[in-house]
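Dear support,

I submitted the protein below through the web form. The confirmation email said the job was done, but the results page showed an empty box. After a refresh the structure appeared. I'm attaching both so you can tell me whether what I see now is the final result or a partial one.
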Amino acid sequence: MARSLGISYKRWLGWQPTPDDPVEWDEYERDWMMALDTYERAHKCPVCGMDISFCHDQVAVATVFKDAAVDTCYVGRMRELAMDKFAQSGTVEAPNSQTTRLNPR
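What the results page shows now:
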């Protein structure tokens, strides 16, 4: 959760800067994030987010799930619509590198 908020784990636990501890991203926090990144690269599927030892095993997946439902992520939909509109403008230079930003109301 801390990473998705862009803060260190110690800040998520309530840390605030003090004269004795002014650095949020100290060596310990950076080491934790690097270890997490290493773990995720080795074990998490970039498509579904599950452990690759499970999701890349067709028999295991078929044993656990009977099928899949189709749902809509409305954030993804909003981004797709924005990209479609942008593509129609004719100014797309690198379609696989373009991204979107959600604009708050």
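Response: this is the final, complete result; the empty box was a page-load delay. The chain has two domains: 2-64, 71-105.
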